[in-house]
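Q: I have two molecules that I believe assemble together. Could you output structure tokens for the complex as a whole instead of separate predictions?
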Amino acid sequence: MESYDFKKIEKKWAQKYEEFSGYRGIDVENDKEKFYMLTEFPYPSGSGLHVGHAFAMTAADVYARFQRMQGKNVMFPMGWDAFGLPTENFAIKSGKNPKEITKEVTDNFRYQMKNLGFSFDWDREINSTSPEYYKWTQWIFTKLFEKGLAEKKEMPINWCPKDKIGLANEEVIDGKCERCGTEAEKRTISQWVVKITDYADRLINGLYDTEFIEKVRAAQINWIGKKEGVKIRFKIKNKEIIGWIPDQVGNDSKEADFDIDEIEVFTSRPDTLEGATFLVLAPEHPIVQELRNSRTQELKKIEEFLASIKNKTEIERTDLTKEKSGVFTGLTAINPITGKEIPVWTADYVLMSYGTGAIMAVPSHDERDKEFALKYKLPVDDEYIPDEKMIGEVIRRGVGDKAVTYHLRDWIFSRQHYWGEPIPMVYCENCAMDVVDTGGRGGPPLQGGWQVVPLEQLPVVLPEVEKYLPTDTGESPLANIKEWVETTCPKCGGKAKRETDTMPNWAGSDWYFLRYCDPHNTDVLADQKKMEYWLPVDVYVGGDEHNTLHLLYSRFIYQFLWDLGVVPKNIPEPYKKRVSHGVILGPDGNRMSKSKGNVIVPDEFVEKYGADSLRTYLMFMGPFDATMAWNERSLIGVKRFIEKFYNLIGTYAGKDTVSDVESKRILNKLIKRADENLVAFKFNTVIAKLMETVNALSKPGFRVNADDLGSMIKVLAPFAPFVAEELWEKIGGEFSLHGQPWPEVDEKYLVDEKVKVSVAINGKMRAVIEVAAGAEESEVVTLAKLEEKVAKYLNEGKILKTIYVKDRMLNFVME
RNA sequence: GCCGAGGUGGCGAAAUGGUAGACGCACUAGCUUUAGGAGCUAGCGGGAGCAAUCCCGUGGAGGUUCAAGUCCUCUCCUCGGCACCA
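A: Yes, here they are, computed for all two components at once.
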């Protein structure tokens, strides 16, 4: 038999698999159990598929192949999540069209994936940037709007004053613009916001219908961060300082835009209310903002303070190790229980996005409040005792109500960028006049003029532009295309303007798993019957970085579609099981990055050692969810194993018709281990067992027939599909190995005739004896006492008791 | 800071509360004379000993148990996520 020629083998079978139907999921095959295996569709970047992708996808592929061999109808699809900043930035730099860039890059990714032998169902390939796909992404948004879950709001963004563009968090390095180094600012602009918070409770409760690994479930629950407590209202004593605004001359005064005579705080510890000695407002709190228009004596200090914290991130502001800063607002409030007058401050450590944006400070109880009180010499009340009955008291007196707050915030859905789905909305001045919707505050109508683009007019196709850079005003470059912006109102037919913001990357990935069920449908996002068959996703493999945002957004969208009746009523949650994969570090033990020059690209190693070796190595590196450093020597070791396997089959093939009992034992133990560990994503130990098996059977004296060799090849098949197929052919198997049933364990070969029992004295191992399997305690004790070493220790004292664990160990407890 | 995960040989790692270090890499010795990242045999946690064997050993300190890497308490350290990267 010739030696292992991976290039020849992989080329030969890759060609055959192009025509192979066994990797296609069959839409509605009721005779078979379905299995929907999903792995995150990648963002196709210019540098190609890297080894991290290869790792996650190999694991998913191994699992999908294993499920297929269990006789299931497996859907294992792949696609491209191709909208996003890196492509846009590359387009800006190179002047190339993002559409063309995406085409080149996805072609490369697909080629790499095929080289790696992934058994994706390519008939279901999707691309989030194709109009046929984003038509439905847009449609979902129109539904969100119609159901009142999307609205325009003033929201802060990072802003570079020099480049005059909005910046992503990632583009702000140490508070500076990544491109030009200018200090970034916070700026408020009108943005689309989606009210995911309306679904907060359902997003928590739904988790109990899933089998997510505990870590992921915890991540989601913590992210939603539900906290029950009380909202307490503190009367403002001197509200007149807010309500007084100077006119242009500076003499007369007029009323503020809104009237406020109390401050509402949220607390999860109302029992400490008596100890509240001051209040703190978030700097963004409307009262603080209103004070800036007033002529309070503190104005200058307030302005200085606001300027000083303007560019701090929330993480910096809430970091307990960093010094807090704040300033007195000039306002005085009244503690509703003690009746005492307490000062109102504003400080960076209170966030507008949580609770009511205001807290009651209890320095005697809360570390942060204490630190702040000490720094600014604010009163501390050490005397009071927290009182459980305070909740009742607060409610009875009408100064507060039970309330729930969430860490989860509404989802900012607008991006002022080109390379995203256009938000399918049109603003009509004319219609705006008809609707009096002032957002409750007076002023111009907010939502009334917005009209959704109806389904018949979808998709709103992303137009070609000259320049991909955002405009000077921070608007998307789409704003420069007059003929596109100017349109007619779908409601009144008059002149109207299109929204020029695009959607965030998440929009396309929220629902992609639905589209895989029916990727070519032109009438609906996917056919109900098909979704009913395939859903829920049985296993979803992804990274930790997506365990909160992507996973939560996508569960939210699913629940929303469920409410609309668009997805099957009997399936309330989209994903049955979520598992998160580990990370591959560079050879130097650091995270892979271009700047460190430690990025591993799989192609090179496919070329050098073959896809089978690479895949098997990736699965052998360590636990599926661990962080592991790349090591080429180890990969070479795995290749040696595959060569050994190849040679082993070669020496046995066709020689014997009967396997000996010892070989049967070894093989059945292998299958048992593979069964148990594959289900549990413990791939590394399956490969270790395969290695042990090959090592054992490579020793002389074994007889193994073709059937048993076949079983062994089947265990290898999910990991090293090409060479396994080749070996399967060599032993006379029928194409394709990957459609064959998984081998069954023959229980009778799992029982050994003799077992090794370790003998301990007072818990210390002193000897190992061989006894017949299933031997009784008395028998084993007798045998153990015959052992010279054991007898020596037993002679030294009295046996108090013996403990025997069948077929495993015997412990003599002595004085 | 908050939340989460994790600390086991020179390295990657195995271990239903029951012989710690399976399997792989590296290394050492011997064989083989091997064009191509070779192959085979043996060894390989630390210490003592010619040896049989004995002692120590899973970040650290306590505890539970006949028995602890595994369970409990405290502690130290490392890594990951943190809402406009995807």
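A: One point stands out. Residues 245-254, 438-445 of chain A have pLDDT under 50 and may be disordered.
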